[in-house]
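Marked as duplicate of an earlier ticket. Keeping the data here for the record.
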Amino acid sequence: MKRIFGIMSVIVVIGVVVFFMMNRPEKTTYGDLLHKELTSYDVINEVYIKQVGDEFTTITNRNDIEKIIENPADMNLKKVDDPPYVQYSVTIRTEEKNDPTIAVGEERIHILGLKNEDGSDAGGMYEIEGNNSLLKVITETDYNWESL
């Protein structure tokens, strides 16, 4: 009887460990996600940013594009199921017309239209761990905002 109880205990512990390993949140960085798709700045024609409401800006300057892509590259992300409270949408328009869009909130982002090399979806919803450096770039850079 003690042996059966011991074996059952080991099976339960192994099951719990496997469950938590399989459901562990996926962690990555903003830079790792974007560089799966965007291997060079040369493929980026422009970045279109729309603020919730009626203001937008189109960025074609290479330095400003680099700020949007590179400054937040080290931003740590954890995959979640909850969408962000969207403040801005950022669309990266490329030569290949495969234009990923990032819905930017204060605590989360949602990346749409980003594909892995095998064609599977690389985007998703992510919680930002630490500072939201993408939102900081958007709000602290003096872009020429226009009304719709």
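See parent ticket for discussion. The radius of gyration is 20 Å.
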